[in-house]
Amino acid sequence: MSWIAERLNQRQQNESSLAVVKETPSHAQSPRSASLWDQVCDAICRDVSEFNERVGSQQFIVQPPKVLALLQVGPGRDSNRVATAVLELTNKDSGEMKLTCPPEGSGINRHGKFRVHQGMIEVLPDFVGKGPSGRMTPPDFSQFVLDPLLFPDLQ
After folding, report:
1. Packing angle between helix 31-55 and helix 138-150, nearest 10 degrees?
2. Residue 135 has pLDDT above 90, yes or no
3. Average confidence (pLDDT) over 26-41
4. Does the global pTM surpass 0.85?
5. What is the structure's pLDDT at 108?
6. What is the 3-state secondary structure (H, E, C) of the chain?
7. Which domains are present in the chain?
């Protein structure tokens, strides 16, 4: 079961129980860092598509390839919340990426830089907000970026 399906199941279980109660160094870009950027783009697009499919409507769109912009287009669970994220490849030589999640929703204000290092994605020291606990694969990075946006009620 994918992490999207697990989170949707968790949300459904939480609602069911609630209803009962209430009633950077620079070096030449290797093919690996370029490939990892492509893998990150693919993982995020795949996860957003899965989320939209499982909730039954297009709630989010992703606009790749050099800059990934995640935009909420559906009303979502909280019509007052607007979720956005921008992930961009800022330095092709070092594989550096910048993530910006503006503070437009609960638990979303996160921004900082990451880099590709030894085939993994790692956070750089200037990250603001709840950062990852360690190095990540592209699917792990996708979950790190998307989880607070798609499931703010489960944070």
Report:
1. 40
2. yes
3. 65
4. no
5. 61
6. CCHHHHHHHHHHHHHHHHHHHHCCCCCCCCHHHHHHHHHHHHHHHHHHHHHHHHHCCCCEEEECCCEEEEEECCCCCCCCCCCEEEEEEEECCCCEEEEEECCCCCCCCEEEEEEEECCEEEECCCCECCCCCCCECHHHHHHHHHHHHHCHHHC
7. 3-154 (3.30.920)
